[in-house]
Amino acid sequence: MGVVVNLEDERERKQPLEVMTALAADDMKAVNRLIIERMDSPVALIPQVAGHIVASGGKRLRPMLTLVSSRMCGYQGMRHVGLATSVEFIHTATLLHDDVVDESDLRRGESSANAVWGNKASVLVGDFLFSRAFQLLVEDGSNPILAILSSASSTIAEGEVQQLITANDTATSETAYLDVIKGKTAALFAAACRIGAVVADRPNAEEEALNVYGLNLGISFQLIDDMLDYSARQAELGKAIGDDFREGKITLPVILAFRRGTEEERKFWRRTLEDLDQRDGDLERAIGLMEKHGALEDTVERARHYGAIARDALGIFPRNAERGALLGIVDFCIERAH
Questions:
Q1: DSSP states of 148-191 as a string?
Q2: Where are the domains of the chain?
């Protein structure tokens, strides 16, 4: 008796990012052309700084989510190119600002823009990219889409400020941490997906489903990012580990290890993260405590939980290549942990 093989699921499992990239390839070429066109300026420093971070090797995941969501919803026009470009400009602007706030010298293994041109240039070019994003949205002319992305932008800023407030505070709860990552990361994922249904003029139920998908995908993505900062997997990829620790950021691995630890261990966390009194061997001890209390493993399990919610949200859409790619990206985001 023959065995039926679900080629869509098999393809997702093997190479989910490549599947999405291939599906969005033609549209992404148009997005990349528009990015280059719209980040141009007679003020020479602007395209230099913007081009530095745009060309720094990002996956363009957020604009691809807009492109693929639009196509999954049956959209056949080209408005989604401008919308995806706007999403990418918003994301890039937040990266420029984040590196200044975090005093980061590296971005994706290369010198950050603020390390090369200074904080003032990075902040101002980030402002320029935000402005370009909203110029594109005004040109598109959809008030609902403008409302979605403007709301997401303010939510991102609120999330970053909230992270600033919770930094160095070991009393931060898991709920407060989740509020931060919903704001600073998941809000743009949600908006990028949701506008795919809006541009395709789909029913509210589909718009909400894509919003739920993007929000939970973004939460899952950030949980894995926060876990990787303490993982040997990060080192294997040639990336530095412990940046969050050195900055005193309170992420879920810290919260779980702190809550589950002894009073002596909690004193260690207070010294290193609240007082930023960090000594040789402290990062290794922090990782050891996380492993002892299952904090890294449980962070991945939390990511799987939110990933499952994201996958379920797509259940109302017909099975097609785009839906399969969006399902596969959930696996991609989580499997970065291994």
A1: HHHHHHHHHHHHHHHHHHHTT-TT--HHHHHHHHIIIIIHHHHH
A2: 9-335
| Fold (topology level) of 9-335 | Farnesyl Diphosphate Synthase (1.10.600)
* φ and ψ of 107, to 5 deg: -140, 115
What secondary structure, in 3-state letters, does 99-136 show?
Answer: HHHHCCCEECCEECHHHHHCHHHHHHHHHHHHHHHHHH
Specify the DSSP class assigned to residue 75. Answer: -
pTM of the model: 0.93
Cα angle value 281/287/290 (rounded, 5°): 140
Sign of the torsion angle spanned by Cα atoms 100, 105, 106, 111: positive
Q: Which one, of 65, 66, 124, 116, lies nearest residue 93 by Cα?
A: 124
pLDDT digits (tens, 9 = 90+) for 302-337: 999 999 999 999 999 999 999 999 999 999 999 988
CA distance 145 to 207: 11
Tell me: the pLDDT tens digits for 137-150?
A: 999 999 999 999 99
For residues 129 and 89, the answer to whether their CB atoms sit within 8 Å is yes
The backbone torsions φ and ψ at residue 110, rounded to the nearest 5 degrees and listed phi first, read -115, 165
CA distances from residue 80 to 32, 59, 89, 146, 294 in whole angstroms, order as listed: 13, 18, 14, 13, 43
Residues 296/227, Cβ–Cβ less than 8 Å: yes
